[in-house]
Design brief:
Structural class: mainly alpha
Distance between the termini: 45 Å
Largest sheet: none
Oligomer: single chain
Order of helices and strands: HHHHHH
Shape: globular
């Protein structure tokens, strides 16, 4: 579990109670931030015939814009900045954390989305936007979200509490999903990477096990990239759907 341990970025032992320690988590958040800035900078050229870099940036922004417009409607443009920010941050964090930098001593990547505190803050922010939009647009009528339109009164007594609890679970499930996917994926890579080393040390038939585990590692690494993109998409999609509920109710 060493790969998930938060420690001082440049050595110095364990993390203490002081809030002024620059950790590996903070370091990789800055790396993710600068990678995003560098990537987005390529989309500011505004060439009439875009190059590959500009086309990639425009394609990514258009993709997320379609998510907000398709699920929220014309009002989705107002919420695009947050949905796009969350999508790009999770995507870059997942992919940078999957880079095989550990072959360089001391350069093991840290996947910030493997920490529930990070994905939890993202989900709480989305939930706060939903609450703010809901009460701002509808006032106390926002509570009608928990009562489906046309439901008989007797059923409302049972459905309303269930819908309310389901609504409160949303931020937890939203943040838990990317955290679990990254956490489990990296543990799987660590386990089979250990099998590769043990097979090499065992010799004989162990070499066969090493080859099989190494091939599986390649497959899982590719799968990690796919899962990283899917989790970013799911987070953006669910955020847009939750905002749609706040904007339009039922």
């Amino acid at each position: 579990m060493h790969q998930f341990t938060i420690s001082p970025a440049f050595g110095g032992g364990e993390v203490t109670a002081s809030p002024f320690i620059f950790t590996n988590s903070a370091l990789w958040m800055w790396i993710v931030f600068f990678a995003i800035v560098l990537f987005m900078w390529g989309g500011t050229k505004r060439q009439l015939v875009p190059g590959r870099w500009q086309a990639a940036v425009e394609g990514l922004t258009g993709f997320v814009d379609n998510i907000t417009r398709a699920n929220i409607g014309p009002e989705g443009r107002a919420y695009l900045p947050w949905v796009f920010t969350a999508f790009v941050f999770i995507l870059f964090s997942n992919w940078l954390g999957a880079l095989p930098l550990a072959i360089i001593p001391g350069a093991h990547p840290f996947t910030v989305t493997s920490q529930f505190t990070v994905t939890g803050v993202l989900s709480i922010t989305s939930f706060a936007i939903v609450l703010a939009v809901g009460f701002w647009k509808h006032g106390l009528h926002f509570f009608s979200l928990f009562v489906p339109h046309g439901t008989p009164f007797i059923l409302k007594l049972f459905i309303a509490p269930i819908e309310f609890v389901s609504f409160l679970v949303r931020p937890f499930s939203l943040g838990l999903r990317p955290f679990v996917a990254m956490f489990a994926g990296h543990i799987l890579l660590e386990v089979f990477g250990n099998f590769v080393v043990q097979g090499l040390n065992a010799g004989g038939f162990g070499y066969v096990i090493t080859v099989l585990c190494f091939l599986f590692l390649i497959f899982v690494s590719a799968l990690e990239l796919l899962v990283g993109a899917i989790q970013a998409y799911v987070f953006a999609l669910l955020t847009a759907l939750y905002i749609k509920d706040a904007v339009h109710l039922h």
